[in-house]
Amino acid sequence: MADPSRDDGDPADVPAEPITQLVDHVFVLAGQFLRAGDAITAPEQLTAARWLVLGALRDGPLSPAEIARKRGLQRQSVRESVLRLEKSGHVARVPGTDRRTFLVALTAQGRTALERIEPRRVRWADETAALVSPEDLDTAVAVMARLRAAWSARE
After folding, report:
1. Does residue 59 sit in helix, strand or coil?
2. In a 3-state reduction of DSSP, which class is residue 6?
3. Residue 122 half-sphere exposure, CB side, CA atoms within 13 Å?
4. 10 Å Cβ neighbour count for 44?
5. I need a labelling partner for 77 at 20 to 30 A (CA). Which of 3, 22, 37, 92 fits?
6. Would you state the pLDDT for residue 14?
7. How far is CA 43 from CA 78, 115, 126, in A?
8. How many CB atoms are closer than 10 A to CB 82?
9. Residue 10 covered by a domain
């Protein structure tokens, strides 16, 4: 098998599918970003996963399914996070469009937690963005957005 770390010009040594390399990098970065999110949210006794849910609610109440779609999470993960956030007082259930459904809304405590996290998030984002050129970052965001849109259209 060809060694993907070695490129001596032989096509057999070059990975056949650059998308596979991209996916590998995305998975590693996702783990690194989650660990960074855990560190950013730790002073609020939150996790990155719960922060994702809180952030999804910044503009108003959503159903658990809407949160999952907005964040690209599994519904079960969102349900578990909502239960824990509800228990800790960061979110509350509010009536949905019918008796069987509910929406999840930020409480004052949840909004305060987001406000307290924001300076740490900005500091981390600035430090992380400084690792690459603005042009490279813009390109990466554009490529990821196109791939996300293409996959969303397929689902």
Report:
1. coil
2. coil
3. 6
4. 20
5. 22
6. 45
7. 22, 12, 20
8. 20
9. no
State the CB neighbour count (10 A cutoff) for residue 128: 13
Looking at the domain assignment, is residue 139 inside a domain?
no
C-alpha count within 13 angstroms, C-beta hemisphere, residue 47: 12
Domain annotation covers residue 136:
no
Which parts of the chain have pLDDT scores under 50? 1-7, 11, 14
Specify the residue for token string 């924001």: 118
In terms of residue numbers, what domain contains 115? 45-125
Instruction: Give which of 27, 36, 29, 1 is closest to 16, Cα–Cα.
Output: 1
- φ, ψ for residue 130, nearest 5 deg: -70, -10
| Beta carbons of 2 and 13 less than 8 angstroms apart | yes
Positive or negative torsion for Cα 67, 71, 77, 80: negative
Q: What is the pLDDT of residues 86-116, one digit of tens each?
A: 999 999 999 988 888 899 999 999 999 999 9
Pairwise CA distance, residues 57 & 111, whole Å: 9
Residue 24 lies in a domain: no
Q: Which CATH number covers residue 79?
A: 1.10.10.10
